[in-house]
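Posted in: Structural Biology > Protein-Ligand Complexes

Title: Requesting predicted complex, NHR in pocket

I'd be grateful if someone could produce the 3D structure tokens for the following input. Sequence and ligand are given below.
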Amino acid sequence: MQKQRIAVLISGSGSNLQAIIDACQAGQINADVVTVISNKADVYGLERAANAAIPSLVVSTIQGESREQYDQRLLAALEPLHVDLVVLAGFMRILTAEFVNQFSGRMLNIHPSLLPKYPGLNTHQRAIDAGDSVHGVSVHFVTPELDGGPVILQAQVPIFAEDDAELLQQRVHSQEHRIYPLVVQWFCQGRLTMIDGKAMMDGDILAAAGYASDDQ
Ligand code: NHR
Ligand code: GAR
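-- Reply #1 --
Done. Output follows.
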């Protein structure tokens, strides 16, 4: 398959962006990150893009504009780049259905919980507060429903009695950096598709907890 063109959307430190850039450079992902877009100026992820000589853009919010207007500007920035895949990597803005539908089956997100548990924000503290002994991370296709698209792959981590949200987040982060490049490579190899709202791998529908889960 032809080398794929990836856009990565960030809002922060970009450690998942870095993992994907590294995997592209190492030939583990058959793609180039052709643009990095941040909705926040001055975040470290933009420096990572610059260090890798990847063009980046900041699409800041304008006071008073609607979500539709923001997303139209984001779309206008992306359209001329003809990307095959949009990767949300710590992108902290909810996207409109209009935007998401432009990239249906071509947009991935990494969410720090074992979905369908804990969609939304503050997931590590919520897992601790619930007394869970297991937590983790999910990569899923993005659909209009927030954190509700079909799961592709999850990784689990233990929660220990002495954990706080920061410690737990670090444990989850190391798993994120392992599973996100893997899923991006599956997509870039043409193995991964979304059909009728379901994630498919090598032509088979994935189980609710994704690839290699014990419920399939
Ligand atoms: N958009 C759609 N339509 N569907 C999804 O599944 C999306 C999405 C946009 C972002 C990432 C998501 C996550 O992994 C994501 C998935 C932001 C918020 C949020 O509440 C929630 C979930 C996610 C990203 N954002 C606030 C907002 O009003 C702002 C919060 C802030 O700036 O700190 O946009 O968890
Ligand atoms: C990651 O832990 C990701 O799972 C989370 O933000 C972090 C970004 O880290 N995403 C969300 O919480 C989305 N709401 P990074 O910028 O170092 O990749």
